[in-house]
Amino acid sequence: MSELLTGDLYQFESLLGADDRKVLDRVRAFLDAEVRPIANEYWARAEFPHQLVKGFADLDIAGLANPDAGGSQRSLLNGFLALELARADASVATFFGVHTGLAMGSITACASPEQKERWLPAMARMEKIGAFALTEPGSGSDIAAGMTTTARREGEEWVLDGAKRWIGNATFADLVVVWARDESDGKVKGFVVEKGTPGFSATKIEGKIALRMVENADITLEGCRVPEANRLAGAGSFRDTAGVLRRTRSGVAWEAVGVMMAAYEIALDYARSREQFGRPIAGFQLVQDLLVRMLGNTTVCLGMVVRLAQLQEEGTFRDEHSALAKAYCTTRMRESVGWARELLAGNGILLEHDIGRFVADAEALYSYEGTREINTLIVGRAVTGISALT
Fold it and tell me: Where along the chain do its domains lie?
């Protein structure tokens, strides 16, 4: 397909090697055959299509960019995979990002070698699905200081008490990485809570208007006992948690580009086929203006995340890099999906034309993994040397 039709005007995808492009083509074929035909149906029902997990497992992509799961450092491929998933559906991209980025990423960054061997291979094969529990009912942006979930050691066990909110995949996850504050030293530590652990419950959040396929949950921990062997050995403070978020924020920026690209493609296809006043609306100046604005946003943000992936592979990646990309790309995404909906006029609010789903889902991407304001202050601290966060 022409780069003019896909939104990759500057052909950034050509930076991938031949083998990585084959992987991307294989994922595209799966998304075209299995995800796009059912996305609106499951979004409307607010249900996750569990039958897709087997297909994702067969693609063998969950551990591609994870050296501890048998993969290698392939940040650019990983980014394009996130983009492609979001271009098909943001809920599916979020499910995959929670599993591979937040859950597997926490274990990769903070687990002992024995713990990695225990969990990561099965997660890479998607035999075990992961979730990540950080946000609480009363704490989102201030979770570092406001965390109220506690961990208390009793012999060779830890007792977890508290509540978590907005936890994706939690209703069906085989293991959940729970972050809690150690009562003895006040430090935030990570624990892997496995399915069926007494004292752990997850209730699906109903009534969402975005990412409706993602099964976000309210988690309750009441005297939840986990063995010392399930405490992430390398997670000793919130700084370790923040290290995981640094990497996953870049993934959200890639997803935002995927949503923008989908919006542009939907709008372009509609403009070329929709006729008003006796000709396709693509021939009207104001319609072309909207399309070029969307293409411009997509191109600028794609260039940003490609460079971000290169910094990751070079080992020079910092907090402000991912924070700026997340803040900027999700802002441009929100703008672009609005223009696409505008171009479709009344048809833009119908699920059958797809763009309404992307407009709604963009609101969630705009807020999760750190709001625009919080990510702005992370970058502001880096460029001024003065923190405005407190």
Answer: 3-124, 130-230, 238-384
